[in-house]
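User: Please predict the structure of the protein below. I'd like the answer in structure-token form so I can feed it into my own downstream comparison script.

Assistant: Understood. Taking the following sequence of 479 residues as input:
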Amino acid sequence: MGKPTGFMEISRQDRRYKLVADRLQHYQEFVVPLTEEEVSRQGARCMDCGIPYCHQGCPVNNIIPDWNDLVYQGNWREAIEVLHSTNNFPEFTGRICPAPCEAACTLNLTDEPVTIKTIECSIIDKAWEMGWVKPLIPQHRTGKKVAVVGSGPAGLACAQQLARVGHSVVVYEKADRIGGLLRYGIPDFKMEKHLIDRRIAQMQAEGVVFRPNSHIGRDVPVQKLLDNYDAVILAGGAEKPRDLNVPGRELNGVHFAMEFLPQQNRRVAGDTLSEDTSIWATGKHVIVIGGGDTGSDCIGTSARHGAASITQLEILPKPPEKEKKEVTWPNWPNKLRTSSSHEEGCERFWSVATKSIEGEDGRVTQIRCVKLEWKQEGGRWVMNEILGSEFTLKADLVLLAMGFVHPVHEGMLQDLGVTLDERGNVKANTIDYRSSMDKVFTAGDMRRGQSLVVWAIREGRQCARAVDEYLMGHSDLPR
């Protein structure tokens, strides 16, 4: 390493946020980046740890110590080449990945991991600024045609890899714009959409053709793909949301998170939505049910709408403030995480279940909840309601953000007749990514279930190699 003692001499410094009062006035990103000199100093903190556990923590196996050192040495151009060798879209992961690499960092044993995510984002942002990100146009064409269904991170990564080795790739997307969850699931204040648009332009220059407004199984028959392509890759999302089966679920004002969040992304993009179908949190008492990232995004969006109050409910117990490093490291720990959206104003409840949703004149007015007690019985955790602990919360808008169970089965998957696994995902392994049907492959959330963007990129890249081997008999693409 360029600075073997850097971790002893330089304190951890990370990006900061703009003031809450300022950032709530808009939907733009509000992270204040480090200067180039500050990023270089943070790269110097990457110690010569012997075994880089950050590799284990990173799903795409980023070669983290190498580009940390390159940044410290000021060799930013080589740093982006190393970073791109494992990650097609570091500007996405550098913004919205939860950074399991930092949890696995050896310096996390003292709660001061290297600011890996910040360095990654700084490398790619500088690369775009300097014009170093160019289309990688293949020198020859194979004559093979590949259809990719879904334009989220798995589909985009897979399509880009296959186009770069000379296959003709067409990406089908049911929505009106390309990007999948990145476009309509991630709020703009976490990741602005021009980042997707410039990658689309790069991929088009590399030969990828995009077909938005093309819902396979509805607008485009599945058989058309099977007839016209040498390989078909299913890279859609796990879009079937987990529902809340309680009395009053049918009341107006109760919505899935993914009915609420995409609307705001469309408004930011300049779309005009019908007032009859628009969901607003303005002036309302908002209840967000679900304690994960989607729930956090609902909180941040509701705060920008000007909600009267925001309350988040989680059925699981409150995690510990700090993990036991000797037990968890270098694995991803269960501990309390407070997002930037939580900091913008929200009350949080843990170990709470919803008993019913109540309303007047067909519209929600309150929810009835009960506190839970969690105990271990026979080696598994079991929850029990605490007698006499019921309480009510005022509610004008209830957003269900309890996760997603599997991809939508109706339409494309049923028409194809592919085998599903026990969780309802398309069944395939991570060796060849083949479904039960000849020449049909699958990757990302449609195969593994709801997961992280970084896992989607990894599976898209690995699936691309598997498809290339299937089409050509061999592949030089990385796994």
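That's the full token string. The longest helix spans residues 453-472.
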